[in-house]
Amino acid sequence: MLKKAYIPYRGYYSSPFVRWQGSMANEHAILIGAATAKRWLESKKADPKKFDYFFLGMTIGQQRWFYGGPWAAALSGMDGIPGVIVSQACTTSTTSIYQASLGVEEGFYDQAFCLMTDRCSNGPHTIWPNAMGPGGEVISENWMMDNFAMDPWAGGAMIQTAENVAKEAGITKEECDAVSLRRYEQYLDSLADDRKFQKGYMFPVEVQVSKKKTIVIDKDEGVTETTKDGLVSLKPVLPGGVHTFGSQTHPADGNCGVIVATRERAKELSSDPSIEVQILSYGFSRAKKGYMACAVVPAMRMALDKAGVKISDCKEVKTHNPFAVNDIYLAKEMNIDVNKINNYGCSLIYGHPQAPTAGRSIMEGIEAVANSGGGYLAWGGCAAGDTGAAMVLKIGK
Q1: Mean pLDDT over residues 82-110, rounded?
Q2: Of 323, 325, 303, whose CA–CA distance to 314 is shortest?
Q3: Backbone angles phi, psi at 317, to 5 degrees
Q4: Is residue 368 part of a domain?
Q5: Domain that holds residue 288
Q6: Total domain count for the chain?
Q7: Same domain as 330, residue 188
Q8: Structural domain includes residue 242
């Protein structure tokens, strides 16, 4: 159990998430992420020179990513500190925050900055030499599409792992459709009162489309209106499966930033010093081959156990749920109501830019718990390679 690591209340931001091939499709993820982080720090009047270390969470490479950590730090205004790249697919944010927490816990940092950024659009293509191949033809790889379509260990596409879990657990298309509709309704709650909830953590992105024109993206782009009849009418993606394009997430572009600090420094950086956000624990797991959606359950159990907290003690439960089956399986295994988790939104609805996805979800959980008077937040999610991660935080006065 961690005792010294805190996140300043509202010492975090997430950009809007933009469906792939949209308004951020041509933006270099490091450049736009660092530029947004720098603007956000300036808006908070936070001195970038006071940070001790920089974590760049990123999963889909961009040009010059060899220099990613220190380069992103410098572009964010922290040119005097080193940085490192953390890459763990969908749980990159969680692991970045935890690594920063360990540094605070051990006294290495008073405050660290985690920037998680990815562009799924226009994904890079790597060309590998193949001198012994027929005619010396190269081996090529599309970083996103090829890896979504094939896990080199389990031997199948990501959606197949969800279908494997659904079949084993007896989960139906009707259950998946019902959860997808519920998640859309919960997302609509975050738009109420002129997006009051989202504005607690969301920070706009500036995209320069020409020398004379810059556009500001201040809300999610590409969220699909969801209805019961619409979900019923969709056919499963895989023959005999339970998931349609309405009950799985979609690739997106975006970034987010989180400050991790000592209790004293967190109070200094907080928007409301009376509200403390303490990082209590981290959990991890790996499910059996080809059953990625199962991995969140043991990870969350580990995090809860290390925090000394029961799932019933948690005011909010948030997840990264690329497929509806994730939440259904979690709810059944943890004996909780599937309709009462992921309040105010989730990646199933607003999309999945990889690295920042978990970060945004954790922020939403912090905001929801703080707005309801404080308590515990449990977050959990799966990641490529049948892995999972989880985190427990305590929010209160």
Answers
A1: 97
A2: 303
A3: -125, 125
A4: yes
A5: 158-197+276-396
A6: 2
A7: yes
A8: no
Q: How many CB atoms lie within 10 A of CB 174?
A: 11
- Could you give the CA distance from residue 284 to residue 301 in angstroms, rounded to a whole number? 9
The long-range contacts involving 49-52, CB below 8 angstroms and separated by at least 24 positions, are 49/77, 49/78, 49/80, 50/110, 50/111, 51/78, 51/81, 51/111, 51/112, 51/113, 52/81, 52/103, 52/108, 52/109, 52/110, 52/111, 52/112
262-279 pLDDT, tens digit per residue, is 999 999 999 999 999 999
One domain for residues 211 and 317: no
Q: Quick check: 15 and 356 in contact, CB under 8 A?
A: yes
Which residue, 14, 19, 223, 259, is CA-closest to 119? 19
Position 52 in a domain: yes
Helices 324-334 and 158-169: crossing angle in degrees, nearest 10, is 40
Residue 207 CB coordination number (10 Å): 18
Per-residue pLDDT tens over the stretch 316-343? 999 999 999 999 999 999 999 999 999 9
154, two tokens? 């389990």
Structure token pair of residue 320: 């990264």
Same domain, 283 and 321: yes
| Cα 278 off chain centre by | 19
Average pLDDT in the chain: 96
For the full predicted model, state whether its pTM sits above 0.90: yes
